[in-house]
Design brief:
This protein has 23 helices and 30 strands. The two termini are about 35 Å apart. The model has no long low-confidence stretch (mean pLDDT about 95). Bound molecules: iron/sulfur cluster (SF4). It comes from Plastorhodobacter daqingensis.
Length: about 700
């Protein structure tokens, strides 16, 4: 590290990237962060991955937005063509007063002309709980409806739908650190070594101690080396495989009847449903031998304590909710919930996707997943907010909002920290929607692809430049502290939203995030006993916390579930094929995801020196045999074509990918994976099928 060890102060905060929520010590010299160390947070116990340790310098990148920008009257038509280093052909500099007035007046004008429903908002899982709370409050209180959402719709919306339906709570039932008390753990549709790297270190230690680690993924992955079983099943065959495992448990009488009787409902229906899924019948469909399915069933069901972890390989399907229903049923039938070393744990993606969802940044729920359709719930929030009632109708989700823009019913948007021009499925459709808006206000730290389409751009503070709370995948509410000042005139997101709200006629008087937190906690029982001052003192508290001195419950639902009569539910799941199956024109399967070094749409990590140096170029992964068949050398270029569009991208040889598959990371604008993805939705979670699209792969020659 050389001179970078030289620093004159340190500030403790939370890593801005994944849902593990590692606590960090930021070392600062002058107004710059020089390096980052891990500290003893409840989730990371001093550890950090490459992103947390080296991915901090994006905050000092010259592309940072430092002044408000307004689209020039003589700007070219809206499109993806703005140079973030030289935006002056499209935008001009403005002062805060002018930019905020223009932003607010444009939204107010649409409300007056077309009604509140003509305005929608995308908030961000990259912002604090307070900022998420204020954002959803602004849309609901000022525009009177629930058309507000964020990227949870694109990651775990189907998991949330299944958990709410069958367990009565959207959060994990046990922290991932509980794996140290487990005998067996299933990791399915997740690649923690790349996407939740610090959590993966706990998983590896578990395996090293003799724990049985069962990895299930259509793509091979590094955790395989530590696994007792690696089930590389056919893409989209999740329900068939999980039902076959559960059918074995039923057939061989391995279920926990006592637990089922005490704490569940609908068991008989589930049991009858599973009779048709014997492993011998499902083996070919899944691509896994029947005996392996049976052995996995025995290992999981007969263990003293078992956990299930899952990621977006489970959730990002049109049958994502069914996938999660199966995982919930599997845990319930074995009694693997509510005790040490047991639990259901969807590994959350962004550093505050749990908190943003908890804070009500979703169209169907107010804070704490209280439904907008409940008159008493809306009355409670109207009372807290000192305002009138708002719509009892569930709002539109991320992709539905962009569809409504195409239909002309939504005409204005306020987008805070999201990048739908890169992150949405069939991104050409999303970009056309953004270009169509009468008025788009974008608030961000960089001139993102989405900001290309903005009328007003509001420069925001980066995560390490502001204070607030965030909630990680473990339900741990943690305090983030401002380490350095934002550049130029950039301001914390909460402050910008407050200024905008005031100009929209709301009497918001917040002067500090702690005031927002205190108001938010009034409407959220999950935050009982977790005060701002306590978080400042303790750094983190897990919810639920049963008393002011209780550090929080790492495991929940040992004594019943937050559902009618305290019982969880079995919901049988049928096999539903992917929306788009390969055919002679598009014969292969494309799946998308993240890479270790890059975060989501790349706006931060591609501006981070070390991370960009390690992984500088858009790439996809193909099996060496597939490359041979195509006549393409590893490192050569291929063209990927789906029904939505095509991209040209460098191909890597990777034996982890099946011969009929291609894996494409979605961080690279120059070869955007989401040009190709299928926007078909899971009917419950409204999550797109990012994990399965029919694709044709062709050699593209040297670029
Ligand atoms: Fe940050 Fe996640 Fe890495 Fe921890 S595991 S350092 S939270 S990216």
């Amino acid at each position: 590290r050389g001179d970078s060890r030289d620093f004159d102060r340190e500030v403790q905060s939370v890593c801005p990237f994944c849902g593990v929520g590692c606590q960090v010590s930021l070392k600062i010299k002058g107004d710059r962060v020089t390096h980052v160390d891990g500290i003893n947070g409840p989730a990371n116990e001093g550890r950090l991955c490459v992103k947390g340790r080296f991915g901090f310098d994006y905050i000092h990148h010259p592309h940072r937005l430092t002044v408000p920008l307004i689209r020039r009257s003589d700007a070219p038509p809206k499109g993806l063509d703005v140079d973030p280093a030289n935006p002056w052909t499209h935008f001009r500099e403005a002062n805060w007063q002018e930019a905020l007035d223009l932003a607010a007046n444009g939204l107010a004008r649409l409300d007056a002309t077309h009604g509140g429903q003509s305005v929608a908002g995308f908030g961000s899982a990259k912002c604090t709980n307070e900022e998420a709370y204020l954002f959803q409050k602004l849309i609901r209180q000022r525009f009177g409806h629930n058309n507000v959402d964020h990227c949870t719709r694109l990651c775990h919306a189907s998991s949330v739908a299944a958990l709410m339906e069958n367990v009565g709570s959207a959060a994990v039932t046990a922290t991932f650190n509980e794996i140290e008390n487990a005998d067996v753990a299933i990791v399915i549709g997740a690649n923690p070594v790349e996407n939740h790297p610090v959590a993966a270190t706990f998983f590896k230690q578990f395996a090293k101690r003799g724990g049985k680690l069962i990895v299930m993924d259509p793509r091979g992955q590094a955790l395989k080396r530590h696994a007792t079983h690696m089930l590389q099943f056919r893409p989209g065959a999740d329900v068939a495989m999980l039902n076959a495992i559960m059918a074995t448990i039923v057939e061989e009488g391995l279920y926990d009847q006592q637990y089922i009787d005490a704490w569940t409902e609908n068991w008989e229906a589930e049991k009858a449903h599973l009779a048709q899924f014997a492993p011998e019948k499902m083996a070919e469909h899944c691509g896994i031998p029947a005996e392996t399915l049976r052995q996995v069933a025995r290992d999981f069901a007969t263990a003293r304590a078992g956990m299930i972890f899952w990621g977006m390989g489970v959730s990002q399907h049109i049958h994502g909710t069914d996938n999660s229903r199966c995982l919930i049923s599997l845990a319930l039938m074995c009694g693997h919930v509510g005790r040490p070393g047991t639990g259901l744990h969807p590994l959350r993606g962004q550093n505050n996707v749990q908190g943003a969802s908890d804070a009500g940044l979703i169209p169907m729920f107010l804070p704490d997943y209280q439904t907008v359709t409940d008159d008493a719930v809306r009355a409670r929030f109207s009372e807290i907010w000192g305002s009138g009632d708002f719509s009892a109708q569930r709002g539109l989700t991320v992709t539905e909002i962009l569809d409504a823009v195409h239909e002309g019913t939504i005409r204005g948007m306020y987008i805070l920290g999201e990048n739908p021009a890169m992150s949405d499925p069939d991104v050409t459709h999303a970009r056309e929607a953004l270009a169509k808006l009468d008025h788009l206000v974008v608030q961000d730290i960089f001139l993102t692809e989405t900001a290309n389409y903005a009328d007003v751009i509001l420069p925001a503070a980066a995560f390490y430049e502001k204070a607030g709370t965030v909630t990680n995948t473990n339900r741990q509410v943690q305090i983030a502290r401002a380490a350095v000042r934002p550049p130029g005139q950039a301001l914390p997101d909460w402050q910008i939203t407050v200024e905008l709200a005031r100009r929209l006629g709301l009497d918001w008087q917040y002067t500090d995030p702690s005031e927002v937190y205190t108001e938010m906690a009034r409407g959220m029982r999950s935050l009982d006993n977790i005060t701002w001052d306590r978080l400042v003192n303790d750094g983190a508290v897990t919810y639920p916390s049963l008393s002011p001195s209780d550090p929080g419950q790492a495991i929940v639902f040992g004594d019943g579930f937050p559902r009618a009569e305290g019982r969880a539910r079995f919901t049988p799941a049928a096999i539903i094929p992917p929306d788009e199956v390969p055919d002679s024109e598009f014969p292969m399967v494309m799946t998308t995801g993240r890479q270790l070094e890059h975060w989501h749409t790349g706006s931060m990590t591609r501006r981070s020196r070390v991370l960009d140096a390690v992984e500088p170029e858009a790439n996809c992964s193909l099996h060496p045999a597939t490359l041979r068949r195509l006549g393409v050398e590893a490192g050569g270029m291929v063209r990927l074509i789906t029904r939505r569009g095509e991209i040209t991208i460098m191909a890597r040889a990777d034996r982890a990918v099946a011969e009929d598959m291609v894996f494409v990371p979605f961080a690279y604008v120059e070869a955007a994976a989401n040009v190709l993805t299928n926007p078909a939705l899971d009917p419950y979670g409204k999550i797109p099928e990012f994990k399965f699209a029919a694709v044709r792969v062709e050699p593209a020659g040297v670029m």
